[in-house]
Amino acid sequence: MIRLTAEQVFAWRLRRQFLVEPADSAVEIVRRLAGVQAQVASAAELAVALRSAEPAADAVAEALGARKVLRTWAMRGTLHVLTAEQAAAALALVASARTWEKPVWTRNFGATPEQITALGAAVEEILADAALSREELVAEVVARPALAHLDEQLRSGWGAVLKPLAWQGILCHGPARGSRVTFTSPARAVTGWPGLPEPDAAAATLVPAYLGAHGPATPETFDAWLSRNSLRKTVLRRWFAELGAELTPVEVNGRSCFARTEDLDGLAAAKPVREVLLLGGFDQYVLGPGTTDTELVPAAHRTAVSRPGGWISPVVVDGGRVTGTWEREGDDIVVTPFGRAPAAEALTAAAARLSAATGAKLRARAG
Fold first, then answer.
1. Domain residue spans in the chain?
2. pLDDT given at position 158
3. Cα–Cα distance between 55 and 152 in angstroms, integer?
4. What tens digit of pLDDT does each residue of 227-269 get?
5. How far is CA 106 from CA 109, 148, 153, 324, 346, in A?
6. How many Cα atoms within 13 Å fall on the side-chain side of residue 172?
7. CA distances (Å), 363 to each of 56, 57, 278, 350, 357, in order?
8. CB 223 within 8 A of CB 229
9. Using only C-alpha atoms, what is the Rg of the chain?
């Protein structure tokens, strides 16, 4: 059994996620991270800018406009920007849980599995050659008498009844009209849309992609990242097992995990990263392993990072661990450390990097 320390894992992840050596393009970053959460568009832009050799304020928007990536409800039912192949794999696996067919889903969101099937057929037809705003899409749908009763659910800001359609590859976000969202089909949104693969083939794509940025990890951690633990455990473990020699069991501080075999040398050789980082809200460095990982986020401070309403705070990362949160007040970055604050010169360097990513001249101070 190969034994690793948490410090080695953090150092390796920071390098893999372009937080030590930046990348040349937004698409490269999105692919390496196995998706970038884009529930808040500015958070996705910051995550990419912080990892870019030449930060641009709208790199994600440009990649979306060029049809190099797409934006859709994917992991954990939240909006993500993904490459075509990884989006198809993620959606196929999320859809395989069939969460919208469970009674609790019907009670919460007011649509039966049969209604979702009928809605999906209608939306697939409507969006085959169009990009429509929510209002336009709803109007087209409720004009059909069999679906008129879904008017209120379709207009919900959370998009609950639209998510199962996204997971089935029927719709995704289309080109923005100013501040207004549109919906279209994935085939129109991104070049090279492959359609949804079978779940076993999807797992062979997405599990290694996840481990290549956020590993080593357990099958359960992968499932928490993907579906909030909605997948059948026997199927989940089979997917890992069927990857065979592509994965290797390892121990991280005594915990059994899996790593990609190709990453073992890099993990073993990883040296601690002493740089202090100021990462934005909803950053993949935190979301990949999740805030329940007490090696990454101290249990006593989890509620400061994972806040009500699913909000993930901007964080201070020191030595690979989350050691505080921060918020912006004008041109000031106000840091709330969990213990001792980072050295002033380290915070100054972190603020300079954040300034380069945002285009604003920022200064950091401990609150």
1. 7-189, 199-269, 276-366
2. 72
3. 41
4. 999 999 999 999 999 999 999 999 999 999 999 999 999 999 9
5. 5, 17, 12, 39, 51
6. 30
7. 20, 19, 12, 9, 13
8. yes
9. 21
- The CATH class given to the 199-269 domain equals mainly alpha
- For position 156, what pLDDT does the model report? 80
Q: Which two tokens stand for residue 329?
A: 């007040």
Contacts of 81 (CB under 8 A, 6+ apart): 30, 35, 36, 38, 44, 60, 63, 64, 69, 70, 71
Check: CB of residue 75 under 8 Å from CB of residue 90: yes
Torsion (CA) 232, 90, 297, 214 in degrees, nearest 10: 110
Buried-state track 267-299, b at ≥16 Cβ within 10 A, e below 16: beebeebebbbbbbbbbbbbbbbbbebebbbee
pLDDT at residue 103 greater than cutoff 90? yes
94 pLDDT more than 80: yes
Q: Are 88 and 211 in contact (CB under 8 A)?
A: no
Beta carbons within 10 angstroms of residue 334's beta carbon: 14
Q: If pLDDT is split at 50, 70 and 90, which confidence band does 155 have? A: confident
Q: How far apart are CA 176 and CA 211, in angstroms?
A: 32
Q: What would the two tokens of residue 60 be?
A: 């994600």
